[in-house]
């Protein structure tokens, strides 16, 4: 069912999922269950991925069987919530496609909103805003007040993130007025974000009042999910009021719940302000342990924002005062990397950042430290030799890069000519040992191989010669010799080439598939690992998959 559906939409939504959605795996009891029951089971089975996958499949299958547009979209939305991160945006696109097919503005807008929220969760704020604006364009044509204010809330979050605090405050106040009577979680979230804005504009009194109100309102509404976040916000606010001990206590109390939600961004901010509080209390050694936790999150998650740059300035200051040049140099490099990311994401803040932190001076400091370290470790002759070797290495790397690009380009042209001319590649046959097999057996195996290729059974993951032999009712020796004779390849190369050839055609025809990562492409055609896929693709085409896709994007398809 799902495989046919994906073909209808030009195979644009990851056909590797067909194996997960085969309707013959869904019990009749689930096919007859209602949507509320299935949704409850999806939420309840969060710790059992196998069961959850079955309920997800059953929900979407039922929605499609009944041609229920709204529930089809909810089915894809379920996948967005519960799929691995690399697949969430693929399912979001499926949701948008289904909504557009239904031709209902509220469904299309809600689908774009869900995609934007997923981008925001992945800290891709520009993409998130683009989708929020698309959502707003559709939802503004409806009278659905909940969706209208949900879009306002999410746009306000982007404005807060980018530093447009007054604009964000105005939007959050509108959301508070609406959600107070209509949605408890939306109301509490809006209060929390409003408090953060007050803190950033220096109105610490209003921030405290808002945080207190948020905690009290949560108790009244019997919804304490946001209590940790109000404490976290107030802890940061207390730092700015110079109440360092209170700041440490409130943030530390909030962190277990925040870590449990895997909210690494607020975790990093919490560590930073605990560290700053200890620094202000003249306990730099204790502060350092928290500053290093911020660096670990930046290293693992890539999360950084302008105020966290001070984390590295304080680390550099500490190790400079101790004379630890190597560690000082390490954190200078970390600061320069963080600064480059911040400047890309916050271009409008560049003038403010330059006043607080001068990258040029930091580069000079870095060079000074490097020179001092080199004088300690190397004499002038060794230093010159290292520079020369580095230069020669760069020349060699550059030469190899240019040569490989030239080779890849030629390979790409040859491959596209073969595809466009539709001339089949003649296999190099190998007659070794084929005559000792009964001709009827050979004929039977040849027909089975043709059907195997026609039905695309080669896309199965972890396919082995033993499995295929068992499916054919033959023996490994005969199958190996027939493949070698008729296809001119060993079994592994035969399967890998079929997978790659299928993927090449899919990439040529379907622009959506070109957006997949190598990992997703490997799963698409049943490779057991990304590395095996990359090796097989290179062996078949003479170029990496990324190069082939980039050339297709240039308009060679």
UniProtKB/TrEMBL annotation:
GO terms for molecular function: DNA-binding transcription factor activity; kinase activity; sequence-specific DNA binding. It holds the Pfam family HTH_18. Residues 459-551 form the HTH araC/xylS-type domain. Residues 442-469 form a coiled coil. The keyword Membrane applies. InterPro entries: HTH_AraC, TPR-like_helical_dom_sf, TPR_rpt. The chain crosses the membrane at residues 381-402. Residues 1-19 form the signal peptide. Keywords: Coiled coil, Kinase, Membrane, Signal, Transferase, Transmembrane, Transmembrane helix. The keyword Oxidoreductase does not apply. This is Histidine kinase. The lineage of its organism: Bacteria, Pseudomonadati, Bacteroidota, Flavobacteriia, Flavobacteriales.
């Amino acid at each position: 069912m799902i495989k046919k559906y994906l073909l209808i939409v030009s195979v644009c939504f990851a056909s590797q999922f067909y194996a997960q959605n085969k309707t013959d795996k869904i019990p009749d009891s689930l096919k007859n269950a209602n949507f509320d029951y299935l949704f409850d089971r999806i939420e309840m089975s969060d710790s059992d991925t196998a069961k959850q996958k079955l309920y997800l499949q059953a929900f979407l299958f039922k929605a499609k069987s009944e041609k229920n547009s709204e529930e089809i979209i909810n089915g894809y939305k379920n996948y967005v919530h519960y799929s691995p991160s690399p697949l969430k945006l693929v399912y979001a696109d499926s949701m948008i496609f289904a909504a557009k097919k239904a031709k209902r503005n509220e469904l299309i807008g809600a689908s774009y909103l869900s995609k934007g929220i997923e981008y925001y969760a992945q800290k891709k704020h520009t993409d998130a805003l683009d989708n929020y604006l698309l959502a707003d364009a559709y939802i503004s044509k409806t009278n659905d007040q909940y969706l209208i204010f949900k879009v306002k809330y999410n746009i306000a979050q982007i404005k807060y993130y980018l530093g447009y605090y007054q604009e964000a405050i105005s939007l959050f106040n509108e959301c508070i007025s609406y959600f107070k009577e209509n949605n408890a979680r939306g109301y509490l979230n809006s209060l929390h974000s409003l408090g953060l804005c007050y803190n950033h504009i220096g109105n610490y009194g209003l921030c405290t009042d808002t945080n207190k109100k948020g905690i009290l309102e949560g108790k009244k509404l019997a919804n304490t999910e946001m209590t940790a976040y109000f404490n976290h916000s107030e802890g940061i606010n207390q730092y700015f009021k110079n109440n360092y001990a209170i700041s440490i206590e409130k943030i530390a109390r909030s962190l277990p719940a925040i870590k449990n939600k895997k909210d690494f961004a607020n975790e990093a901010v919490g560590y930073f302000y605990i560290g700053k509080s200890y620094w202000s209390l003249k306990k730099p050694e204790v502060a350092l342990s928290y500053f290093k936790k911020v660096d670990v999150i930046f290293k693992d998650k890539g999360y950084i924002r302008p105020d966290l740059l001070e984390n590295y300035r304080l680390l550099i200051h500490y190790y400079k005062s101790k004379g630890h040049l190597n560690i000082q140099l390490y954190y200078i490099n970390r600061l320069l990397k963080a600064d480059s990311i911040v400047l890309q994401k916050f271009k409008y803040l560049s003038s403010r950042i330059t006043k607080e932190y001068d990258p040029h001076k930091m580069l000079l400091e870095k060079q000074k430290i490097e020179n001092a370290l080199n004088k300690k470790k190397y004499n002038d002759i060794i230093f010159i030799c290292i520079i020369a070797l580095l230069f020669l290495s760069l020349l060699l790397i550059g030469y190899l890069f240019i040569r490989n690009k030239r080779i890849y380009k030629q390979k790409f042209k040859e491959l596209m000519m073969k595809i466009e001319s539709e001339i089949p590649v003649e296999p190099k046959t190998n007659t070794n040992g084929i005559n000792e097999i009964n001709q009827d057996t050979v004929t039977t195996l040849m027909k089975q191989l043709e059907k195997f290729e026609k039905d695309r059974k080669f896309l199965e993951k972890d396919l082995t010669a033993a499995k295929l032999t068992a499916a054919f009712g033959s023996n490994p020796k005969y199958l190996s010799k027939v493949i070698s004779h008729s296809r001119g390849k060993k079994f592994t190369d035969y399967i890998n080439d079929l997978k790659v050839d299928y993927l090449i055609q899919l990439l040529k025809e379907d622009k959506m598939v070109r957006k997949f990562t190598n990992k997703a492409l490997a799963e698409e055609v049943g490779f057991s690992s990304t590395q095996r896929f990359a090796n097989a693709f290179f062996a078949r085409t003479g170029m990496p998959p990324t190069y082939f896709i980039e050339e297709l994007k240039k308009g060679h398809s």
